[in-house]
Amino acid sequence: MAEGAVTMRLLAVDTSSRDASVAVFVEDRVAALVAPGGSEQHSVALFRSIEQALQQAGAGLNELDAYAVTTGPGAFTALRVGLSVIKALAEVSGKPVAPVSALEAVCESARAGGWLVPMVDAYRGQIFGGLYEKRDGDVAPRGRERVASLEEFLAALVEEKVRPADCTLIGPHLERWAAAIRESPFSGSPQENTSPVLAEAVGRCGRRRLARGEGVDALHLEANYVRRSDAELLWNQK
To answer: Could you tell me the domains of the chain?
Structure first.
């Protein structure tokens, strides 16, 4: 690094699933990664994970230059924990935040490139899915993210002229849908199981977004739930 250059430190947080994680980047290097696992609620474990990650990286909260966080899709309560913490830190510090899709982070963590179909468990017999393209070290969406049964999601891609032979199915728990995939038009598509620990991938996506000037302030950081909450569904049934 050139003399007098400023070292950029970024805190990346993912609470989009049960496998919450925290990473600290110093420039493009992962200086710390904490993924506690276990059954503790994110609201209990997240602050401790952030503290551990900062200690491992040898950095303090006041030394952070930016943040990255998954905005969804994912579980409502889990997402809100991560977003609320990062929103508060960004508001106090005045530092920018890079909002990152959990599905984009799944693509970033995959070894495969080209056309990617990321899928994560949405429970209730559904998945969150999307269509992305990964080229030259960047990940870009090529369709809207949605929630549906796996069968409905893959059938919709075919209707939209997506060629199964061109795609790789990716996700942290593909074995859960092995039977349904075998019965789908994507039965012959390559598959890759990815890590459920996404903070490092979130940080890498976030760094690229910030470099493009796509960071937001705390006021404009919003969740992307994809699926409406139970409260909204119940209200609409009245």
So the answer is: 9-102+197-236 (3.30.420.40), 111-193 (3.30.420.40)
